[in-house]
Amino acid sequence: MLTAIFLYLSLLLFAPTLTCAQRSADALSEIKALTAFKLNLHDPLGALDGWNSSTPSAPCDWRGILCYNGRVWELRLPRLQLGGRLTDQLSNLRQLRKLSLHSNAFNGSVPLSLSQCSLLRAVYLHYNSFSGGLPPALTNLTNLQVLNVAHNFLSGGIPGNLPRNLRYLDLSSNAFSGNIPANFSVASSLSSSTFRSTSSPVGFRLASESFNSFSICDNALKGLIPATLGAIPKLRVLSLSRNELSGSVPASMFCNVSANPPTLVIVQLGFNAFTGIFKPQNATFFSVLEVLDLQENHIHGVFPSWLTEVSTLRILDLSGNFFSGVLPIEIGNLLRLEELRVANNSLQGEVPREIQKCSLLQVLDLEGNRFSGQLPPFLGALTSLKTLSLGRNHFSGSIPASFRNLSQLEVLNLSENNLIGDVLEELLLLSNLSILNLSFNKFYGEVWSNIGDLSSLQELNMSGCGFSGRLPKSIGSLMKLATLDLSKQNMSGELPLEIFGLPNLQVVALQENLFSGVVPEGFSSLLSMRYLNLSSNAFSGEVPATFGFLQSLVVLSLSQNHVSSVIPSELGNCSDLEALELRSNRLSGEIPGELSRLSI
Question: Domain Leucine-rich repeat-containing N-terminal plant-type spans what residues (predicted)?
Fold first, then answer.
């Protein structure tokens, strides 16, 4: 009995000592692993200078380390310009839950040894320079929920199986190649979900119910999209843009094709080589899709009118394809639509009046099609519009007076149509306009004398329209203006001095007009100037030597004027100059040797 009591008391006395000893061993192991990690790195900012094993609570009081019960749970060192390879000794951080090293300059391969950190839940390695393949052993990290390795140089194929609890996967902006595996899945027990179809093996295993975001855009993937990818339960975001994927887009990208309810909210498939879209087999289908991006593919056929049944759509981008036919009147069914982009297709006919039902529209981009008829006055009812782009079509008539109601408008593009008449002065009421493009129409008259009222303008293009008269002084009120294109008109007179006080001006295109006076030296004060074209006018005098101050200038054209004297050597200071056009003038003397150091 006494012996038993003695043993019991001994356990009570020595148990804490054993626990502390064990804890110290764990801490020493983690200190050793982190020290090896540090010694392997380039640390130009000295971010890890405080990593010293002599600190009172090492390593838990080190920068970027978060501990729980004396063990390292998180290693967080983003945006510190750290470089070098990751040491395999990180695998000794056995309690590690989060590894965040994004936005640095790490290189080499992603360590295979990370798969030994079995408690990892989140790995953020994006915006580095990692290369090689994605270690297949990462599948063993059964607790992993977030894996972000975007914006590296990783290559090879996409693993078919991924950790079963994965919720967020971002492999974008790397060099992954090959096909999306037909057996792509997140390994899970068959009790959660099984999907069967003629295009996949019987019993094909899908993602766990928590997997909700998959991004692998901007890689080099080829081949078809497995139809089963869109049927992964709970998947909400799928981004495959900027690859080389081809064939037809499966219907599972848009709606439910299985017993599971639809979950995809965002589908981004732009900048690939798709040639078609599979229409849902059932006349009645269910969808919760809000964003569909199919821009810049090779999809042919008429506008897919069945998409107008997806009433949840907010953003629809079909631009840069080969869609033909008319824009269906059912487009008015999309009452939640905020952006409709169908630019650069072959759509024709008139814009359907029913589109005015889409009262939430903020972007309407119909540019580069074959739409015809009068500019629709009913577009003036879309008062939430911020971008209206109708350029490069066959619209005719005048600008509707109702456009003055578009008070939120920031971008208005009516270029390259057959519009006629005097440009509505009511457009000056659109005080939020930052881009106004009326170029290559058949307008007449003079540029508004109070054009300075458009104080938010950053880009003004009224070229090729037949405007005449002088450039108004109020142009000097456009303090945000960066691009001014009034070329190919009948404008005349001297340039107003006020134009030389526009601090953000970078592009000035005034060629093929009747402007006169001496070559304006005032442009020398616009140090942001990159493009200055005054050719084919009636300017006289000398080429200002002060143009040499324009070190950002890329193009300078004064050809076909009445410029005389010599070419100033100071132009050799325009270190970015690539094009210097001075032909058909009255210049004399030798070409300055200083110009030889330019890249023209």
Answer: 29-67
